[in-house]
Amino acid sequence: MYDVDFSPPEGVERPLWRSLLINLADRFAPERLPPLQLTSKPLDVILPGDSLELPWYRTVFTNIGDVVSPEKLPPLDLESRPVDVGELPADELNHPWWDSLLQNLRDRLAPEKFPPLHLTSQPVPGFGAESTLQILDWSELIAGPKVFRADEPRPIATGGSFEPAAAAPAPEAPAASPSLLAARMLLVRDIGRTRFRRKIWIALAAAEAVFLLVAIFKFQ
Length: 220
Hints:
By secondary structure, this protein is mainly alpha-helical. 44% of the residues lie in helices and 0% in strands.
């Protein structure tokens, strides 16, 4: 890890008189540095601004010269090895239909044999299963004590009484919410408008078809 220094540069904390003296010394007695040695060869590069400022006749003669006697460049040295990517999708689309049919039959009858797949990681069993996935009960997944509730006692019918049991009162229907009624009315209205618009479009399409048929038979 590198220690990142966010402190300002040394020139910021330098006093004004000292920076003034350093600038005067660099002005009247500059430091003598050794000559610069270039290890690379300069390239003749024409900037876009310079090419736009050239006159038209110069560019015409330059283009003619490039066509008649083009510049001979050295052969390109590739440092990487080409990779066979197979057939591109555009080339596959240009094939005729019988070529794709024969290729599909070949893949169906004699498929290409690939080497076995070598897995570097161990498969993770699902819920502790070794071969297949098992769906466990909620009672086995939830940790805690199991509580068994007793069944409710059933009424015992006596042999001497044959009186019919009183009918249970019917549950009262809950009152409908006004918001639900308003939403239902809006939904019914939208469905009605949709059906009306569908009828209009069907009528327009039928009228257009009839008009086209009449025009075809009339102008023939």
